[in-house]
Every structure is written in C-alpha cells, then in structure tokens.
Amino acid sequence: QVQLQESGPGLVKPSQTLSLTCTVSGDSITTNYCYWTWIRQPPGKGLEWMGAIGYSGTTYYSPSLKSRTSISRDTSKNQFTLQLNSVTPEDTAVYYCNFLNYWGLGTQVTVSS
Fold first, then answer.
1. Neighbour tally for 64: CB within 10 Å
2. CA gap 95, 25 in Å, rounded
3. What is the pLDDT of residue 6?
C-alpha cells in the first residue's frame, strides 16, 4: 500500500516561495516508470495538475506554472518536493501529492500578508 504525506508551512507571504515536501512510503520514488505528481485545488475551483517528477528524475511542468515551479527529490528520504516562487493570493489552495490512485491527505496553503 503506497502512502503519501504532504508537509510544509500553511501560510506563505506574497512574493515568497512556497515549499512542500511529499514523503512516500510503500514504494520507492525510483521505481521504474513511476511518476510522482503535485496537484492543487484552489477554493471553489477544480483540480489543477502542477507538475511531476519521474523515476529517473526527469521533471514535467504545467505550461502555466512552469516559470515559477520546481520539483526535486531526495531519494535517500524517498521524498519529492515542490517549490513555487513568487506566490500571490491566487496560489492559495489545497496542495496534494499523488501517484496513480494514491493521494496524500492534502495540505492547505494560504498566501496572505
């Protein structure tokens, strides 16, 4: 059973960098052909795919967020990390890490001064 857990600050100030970590158990993030994803849901809106990191470390980003997003990993800790730069209140959302049908519980991030 794969389990994912997001962690990070719940409040970020405008113009700062949002940084979240997903800790994975039950599978290795280096398992062949596995892709680990970040998805968010702003209040009152649908799910938005932000990006992913593959088993080899290759990254993929949403075109609309690519200029502000970076996804990395720490294979020794079986974690992958999201960084979103220059945040605005529009980045307020519940952020999820995901792998196939497995989801973290999500973490609320509010961008506010």
1. 10
2. 18
3. 98
